[in-house]
Design a protein that fits this description.
- With 368 residues, this protein is mainly alpha-helical.
- The protein has one domain.
- Helix content is 70%, strand content 4%.
- The chain has a 3-stranded antiparallel sheet, covered by helices on one side.
- A hairpin with a 2-residue loop joins β2 and β3.
- It is globular and about 55 Å long.
Length: 368
């Protein structure tokens, strides 16, 4: 079978290098986060994360091996598979820490809500690429995708996983704003969001309400609900300019940091590498997002552009929310830091996003 040379010529090697660098940072940081007092658990977690990274590279290659417009044709199958897997979780899923989010197959557990974020990107790209207009989108243009996304959103919130549901909503909002809304539609949607706030708050679970209250005043319960964020800010602040050194973080070593190899892993990195290391990570992430958006900018058709904008939104908002909650500027929600937080589902979803970037970028010279 002949391989078009232009695919190789347009392959974004810098994006791949940045991805490998981020995976490496994650593996090294996970080892440090899980090792103190764990008697070898750091090595186990680091090796597992490296294996997930390797499997992610295989998945990434599979994603960019076919023309990205096939996703446009497969959108309904992808959507149906996502909804069925989320429904399966609610009936047969594995429960961990009070949340039923995982499909367990032997020792392997997968969280389908992670892939649901990218399903939202594909569904929206399918609709928005057909509804483009210079005057902006109207209610008719966004009604169908909104109704479709409400199904996986509802199934995810029931688990309960409000953080992931919120990410899907923000990704959708970002893509719709990129497409452009009529001013009247935008004003009405903003007003509806503001008016629905009290109703949403009333229907939150008690622990979710507690997180919001703690966000505004962490000191109201320093040994309970506010403990996580207080310890996280202490860890970040104690890193100062250059950090305490690799494997020398005291907050982490004494296990004061909660979920330190998953949701709060940025605090571990900031304590050990300080402002310098944190800035270096942000530069890597910014360069990664720039390469991804560049692929969308150079795309020859709207569907490819929307895919890249959606995938970039997927990465950006998870980075922003995770770092924001760790630093205390956002409420604590279970949103992982892409490539850095420990977790197979998150890694595979992130590598699928990288595959989308590469796929669109490789085929910018033509489209079907």
């Amino acid at each position: 079978m002949m391989i078009d040379r232009r695919l190789i010529q347009h392959f974004d090697w810098w994006l791949l290098i940045l991805t490998l660098a981020l995976i490496g940072v994650g593996v090294v940081t996970i080892y440090s986060a899980a090792e103190p007092g764990a008697r070898g658990m750091g090595q186990i977690f680091a090796v597992k994360q490296a294996v997930w990274g390797a499997l992610g590279l295989v998945l990434m290659a599979a994603v960019f091996s076919f023309h990205y417009q096939a996703l446009d044709r497969w959108v309904w199958g992808i959507y149906a598979l996502t909804v069925l897997s989320l429904a399966w979780v609610l009936v047969f899923g594995k429960t961990v820490s009070g949340s039923q989010r995982w499909i367990a197959i032997g020792s392997f557990a997968f969280q389908p809500s992670e892939m649901a974020k990218l399903t939202a990107v594909i569904v929206l790209a399918h609709f928005l690429s057909r509804a483009g207009t210079a005057r902006g989108l109207g209610f008719r243009d966004i009604l169908a995708p909104a109704a479709l996304l409400s199904v996986p959103f509802g199934l995810i919130v029931i688990q309960p996983d409000l953080g992931t549901g919120m990410v899907i909503m923000i990704i959708a909002a970002s893509m719709v704003l990129f497409a452009g809304l009529k001013r009247r539609v935008l004003v009405i949607l903003v007003l509806c969001a503001l008016l629905s706030g009290p109703t949403l708050y009333v229907n939150l679970k008690d622990y979710q309400k507690e997180r919001i209250k703690t966000f505004f005043n962490p000191d109201r319960d320093p040994l309970g609900a506010g403990y996580h964020i207080i310890q996280s800010k202490i860890a970040i602040g104690s890193g100062m300019f250059s950090g305490k050194g690799y494997l020398k973080g005291s907050q982490k070593a004494l296990s004061f940091l909660p979920e330190q190899h998953t949701d709060f892993i940025f605090a571990v990195l900031a304590e050990e590498w300080g402002l310098l290391g944190s800035t270096a990570l942000l530069v890597l992430l910014f360069a990664f997002l720039a390469r991804g958006l560049g692929a969308g900018y150079r795309s020859k058709d709207p569907f490819g552009a929307f895919l890249c904008v959606g995938a970039a939104s997927y990465f950006f908002w998870q980075i922003f929310i995770n770092m924001g909650m760790v630093m205390g500027i956002l409420p604590v929600v279970g949103v992982p830091l892409p490539f850095i937080s420990y977790g197979g589902s998150s890694m595979l979803a992130a590598m699928t996003g990288v595959g989308i970037f590469l796929n669109v970028g490789m085929r910018r010279f033509s489209y079907e």
